[in-house]
Write a structure and sequence with these properties.
30% of the residues lie in helices and 17% in strands. It is an alpha/beta fold. Strand 11, helix 7 and strand 12 form a beta-alpha-beta unit.
């Protein structure tokens, strides 16, 4: 029986185990959206993961949705990430960059030169976003033109090339959690009636075109996609997600992707199993059916539901998580007050796992 501690070949990238660090916003970027010393330290601490998936990294200036998030669209940013990838590789780890365009999630105060957030349709998200000048209501985004959509597809491909140049083993495209790719997929955020919206086939087009462009740039073996069917985060409404996501995976199947990363909300296990059967490549699962993925959830590997499992909050609190899972604990309890901020050390001085 395959277990979470067994190695796996991820389309040519050898992983020491089947435990992944889930992508999580850290808000620790330096001037110009660069990776800092704290970013190097954070990822290197977690290099015992079979696979590290970074926080969302914006592919363009207008793709930024939160304060102090990093980019992969300038030479300075690429050079800063090289320090991260070199350190992780020296520690024996493997690392993919998550490329994330926030779309309508953000605010003009986070953007330079009078820019405003963009989206498939001019539909504002509910709620507020935290900014450097305090919480701000989400604004109505500017609807992307056809030419701008095509340029944005190119931005993803360029960021993927920059990621490889920075030493990343591959990239994950963020198609989940209510950000731009997800906004094109969801019927309440994509109200378009052109070739980019309307029917289910049209709503998946942006995700497919982005993925194809990235695969053409760096290869399918270096490309993963994260999805979260039915996830209501950031004001997304997908009351019947099955048809859209089965159509999406059908289009992606021939591309030879490194993996499909599913964030599993409550009551979609049946869809997870259907996508698992449909997708012939590696499946990464982030179980979020009853709260964050916990130590008990790695049985999804034993049961053959997924090939890798990604941990979020538990990995923040336990940088040596693979060793702790193998030993059966003990586990530090996640403290949300340490999760964000340029100066927050988090669990840098975590207790060592003694005699385990």
């Amino acid at each position: 029986m395959t277990t979470v501690f067994d190695p796996i070949d991820l389309s040519g990238t050898q992983l020491a185990n089947r435990i992944a660090l889930a992508p999580m916003t850290r808000s620790r970027a330096g001037h110009g959206g660069t990776a800092t010393d704290l970013v190097v330290e954070y990822y290197t601490q977690r290099a015992s993961a079979g696979l590290i998936i970074t926080e969302g990294i914006q592919p363009s200036v207008v793709g930024q949705g939160y304060p102090a998030t990093p980019g992969l669209h300038s030479a300075e940013q690429v050079a800063s990430w090289r320090r991260v990838t070199d350190s992780v590789h020296e520690a024996g780890g493997r690392i993919f960059a998550q490329i994330m365009h926030a779309g309508r999630i953000g605010h003009p105060v986070l953007l330079p030169d009078g820019l405003t957030p963009v989206a498939p349709s001019p539909v504002a998200a509910p709620g507020q976003v935290y900014t450097q000048v305090g919480p701000k209501d989400f604004v109505e985004p500017r609807e992307l033109t056809d030419a701008e959509i095509r340029a944005t597809v190119g931005d993803f491909a360029t960021a993927a090339r920059n990621a490889v140049d920075a030493g990343f083993d591959g990239v994950e495209l963020h198609g989940a959690n209510g950000y731009l790719i997800h906004q094109f997929l969801a019927p309440n955020t994509n109200l378009r009636t052109d070739e980019w919206g309307g029917s289910e086939q049209a709503r998946i087009r942006f995700a497919v075109e982005v993925t194809k462009a990235v695969v053409a740039e760096i290869g399918g073996e270096r490309t993963g996609l994260r999805i979260s069917p039915g996830n209501p985060y950031n004001g997304i409404e997908e009351p019947a997600p099955d048809a859209v996501y089965t159509a999406l995976v059908a289009e992606l199947e021939p591309l030879g992707l490194a993996y499909l990363h599913i964030l599993e909300e409550a009551e979609i296990r049946e869809l997870t199993l259907a996508l698992r059967k449909q997708f012939s490549g590696t499946v990464v699962l982030n179980v979020f059916t009853d709260g964050p993925t916990g130590p008990e959830h790695h049985t999804v590997i034993d049961d053959g539901i997924a090939d890798l499992i990604s941990y979020g909050a538990l990995f923040l609190a336990n940088p040596d998580l693979p060793a702790r899972l193998k030993a059966g604990g003990p586990f530090n309890t996640p403290d949300p007050s340490t999760f964000f901020g340029g100066g927050a050390k988090g669990y840098t001085d975590y207790p060592a796992l003694q005699d385990r």
